[in-house]
Amino acid sequence: MLAAFGDRAPNQVDDVVGSLELTWLLAEIEQRYGVVVDLDADDMGAIQTVADATRVLGRAVAAAEPEAGGTVGAVAGADEGPAPA
Fold first, then answer.
1. For residues 28 and 11, what is the distance between their CA atoms, to the nearest angstrom?
2. Based on the structure, what is the number of domains in the chain?
3. Range of the domain at 25
4. Which terminus of the chain is less hemmed in, N or C, by CB atoms within 10 Å?
5. Is the distance from CB of 73 to CB of 79 less than 8 angstroms?
6. What DSSP letter does each residue of 31-77 carry, written as one string?
């Protein structure tokens, strides 16, 4: 998903997640999956790498409340197939 930020190839995504990338990623997740991701300061501070983002955001999305018209079930991706690169 981060490859879409800056229109990069997946292999060009750095392992370190910057604050602008994290902000974009949060907005993208909320829009794509129709959820509100609520991270506290500890969660935000724990995200330094792509692996950290996957862990923290995965947990946050699983606990997220759907926005009006959205469904958290879509996050699992059971019917969507692999995410585009």
1. 20
2. 1
3. 2-67
4. C
5. no
6. HHHTEE----HHHHHH--BHHHHHHHHHHHHHTPEEPTT--GGGGG-
Residue 7 is classified by DSSP as T
* In-domain check, residue 58: yes
The single residue listed with the structure tokens 């946050």 is 60
Q: Quick one: which of 2, 38, 43, 32 has its CA closest to 20?
A: 2
Q: Is residue 85 part of a domain?
A: no
Amino acid symbol at 76? A
10 band by pLDDT with thresholds 50, 70 and 90: confident
Model pLDDT for residues 60-84, shown as the tens digit of each residue: 888 887 765 554 444 333 334 444 4
Residue 23 lies in a domain: yes
Strand partners, 66: 35
Is 81 contained in some domain?
no
